[in-house]
Amino acid sequence: MSCKSKPPGSSVQLVVFHVDSGKDVVDKTKYGQFRTKDYHRMIARMWASFRRHHPGATLTILTDMKTRFGSGLSGASVLRRQIDVTRLMYERMIFQRECLSQLDSGQPVFLLDSDMLCLNSFSHLFAHNAPSFDLGLTFRKSHNTPINGGLLIVNRGADARKNALHLMDQMIRIYEMMVDEKKTWYGDQYALRDLVGLHHSKMRNMSVVEKDVGRILILDCGQYNFTPQLNSGKPFPMENNCHLFHFKGALKHYMEPFYWIERSRAKGVQALYTRCFAFFAKLKIERLERIRRASMSSQQELLTNETTDAPTFTAPGEKSDEQKLISPKTLATELRSRNLTYCGYDKLSILYDCIANVERHNLQGRFIEAGVALGGSAIFTAHYKSKERVLELYDIYNQIPAPGPEDGEDAHRRYLEIASGQSKGLGSDKYYGYLGDIEGVVANNLSSFGFSIKENNISLIKGLFEDTMRIDGPVALAHIDGDWYDSVQVCIERIAPHIVPGGYMVFDDYSSYSGCRKAVDQWLAASADFKLVAQKRSAAVQRLPLSRN
C-alpha cells in the first residue's frame, strides 16, 4: 500500500508579532475604535484564510508578557518575552529571528503582519521546478522603501533556513547602524532595501538576487502583498492572480467583512453557510464607505472654507499659455522611467499641490529650485507653472560638496559612498555626480520636454548656494533639495525672508537626511511666520497669510 505525498508547501508555518499589553482599545480611526478583541479576531481570520489554501498551516504568535489571547486563537503557539515598546520594530526583528531558529526547517515559514488575508495558495513557490531561494521578499515601485517588511517567506530545508538566518542577521545589523531618525516602525524596510541592494527598476517578479550568504526571491507586491484601493461602489476588486491582501492602516476595519465575502465565493456546502455572513459583511462595508465619503466631504468643505485666508490644496486652473497639462502621476512616472529624478510620487505630489495653489491664487513671485541634479523636478515644476513666471535653478552642476559637523552619520556615510566612486545612478545610468559639468545636460533635459530656457523664463545659476544665492525680489515657491544641514540652512536664510504670504518652501530631504530635518526643525521652532502644512517623505512649509485686522 502506497501513500500519496503532500505537495511542497501544502503546510506552512505562520509567525505573527502582536503586542497590546492588555489594553482594551489599541487604535482609533475615522471608522471608530479598533479594540484588542478586533486585533485578535483579525489574526484568527488571517490564520483561517491560510488554512483554506494550506490546510496544515500552523500559527506562532510572538508577544510580550501581558498580552492575552482568547479562545478564537486556541491551537496557536504563543511565545513570550520582555518587549521594549519604545523600539518595537527592533524587538520584532530580534524575536522573529529567534523564533525562526527554533521552527521546523521541513516546512516554509511566513513572517507576516496580522492584517493580511491569503486568497490563493503559495505552494508553487516551493515546487521542485520553482526558482531556488532562501528568503522571499515583496517589492513595489518606491525609491526609498521598495521592499515591504510585512511579509518575509523562508523556504523549506536546512540549508535555506541557515541562509535565511544569515540574511536576517545582516538585516538586523543594517538596522542597528541606521540613524535614530530612520529607526521608526518602517525602519525594517530601509534595512531590507539595503540588504537587497537593487533599485526597484531592476527588480522583476520571481527573480532571484544572489547575496554572499543566500538567495533572495523577489516577488511583486501587486501579486503577493497587495494593498486594496478604496473605490466607491467596489472597494476591493477580486483579482484571480492575487495571493494575499494586506489591509494596512485604517483598511483593517474592512478586513473582517471582506473575509466573509471572500469565503462566500467558495463552492459547495461551505458557501451556503457563509452567504448569510456575507450579506451582513456587505452591509458593514457600505457603512464604512459612507463614513469614508462623509470624511472626504468634510475635509473638502474645510479646505474650501479656508480659501479666503490662505491657498489650499486644490487643482490648478487653466494655464495662460494653453499648454495641455498631463496628470502629476503620469508626468512623475515618465520622469522616473527616464531616470531623471530621485523623487518618488509622494514627494512630487506635494510639490504639485504647492505649485497648483500658488498658480490658482495668482501669488506674485518667482519659483526657485536649490539642488537640481538632472533636472527632473525642474521639468515637473516648469510643466505646472505659468509660462511667464521666473524659475531659477541653483546648483553646483557637478559633484555635491561634503556634509558638515551638523550632519548625522547617514549624510557622511552617503558622501563617502559618492566620493569613493561607488554611488550608483538611477536604473543602469552612471551617477550624475560623476558626469562632470552637467549644466548642459539639465538644459537638454528641459528642452526634451518642450521647455526652452529662454521662452519659459528659466535660468540656470551655477555655484555653491552661499556664493550665488542673492535674492532681490518676492518668491512664491522654493523647492530645496540640498541634502545637508549647511546647504539647507543657507537656503532658509537667503530665501525665507522673501517668501510671499501664502507661499511655500518644500524640503525634499526632510525625511531622507537628518541634517536637513535638523535645519528645518530649528528654523520652524524659532519662526512664528511659517508652519508645516504637509509631510510625506518631503515637507511643505507655508508662510502664514497677513493678518486681516
Could you explain how this protein is built, in words?
There is one protein chain. With 549 residues, the protein is of the alpha/beta class. The protein has 2 domains: 217 residues, Spore Coat Polysaccharide Biosynthesis Protein SpsA, Chain A, CATH 3.90.550; 216 residues, 3-Layer(aba) Sandwich (Rossmann fold). Helix 14 runs parallel beside helix 15. The N and C termini lie far apart (94 Å).
Which of globular, elongated, flat, extended, rod-shaped describes the shape? Answer: globular
Based on secondary structure, the structural category is alpha/beta
* Uncertain spans: 302-324
> Portion of residues in helices?
25-40%
* CATH architecture heading of the largest domain: Alpha-Beta Complex
What fraction of residues sit in β-strands? 15-25%
Count of discrete alpha- or pi-helical segments spanning 4 or more residues: 15
What CATH calls the topology of the largest domain is Spore Coat Polysaccharide Biosynthesis Protein SpsA, Chain A
| CATH top level class name of the largest domain | Alpha Beta
Separation of termini?
Answer: 94 Å
Question: How would you write the strand order of the largest sheet?
Answer: 5-4-1-6-9-8-11-10
Summed over residues and divided by their number, the pLDDT gives a mean of 85
Return Rg in Å. 26 Å
Number of strands: 19
Q: How many domains make up the coordinates?
A: 2
Biggest β-sheet strands, sense, barrel: 8 strands, mixed
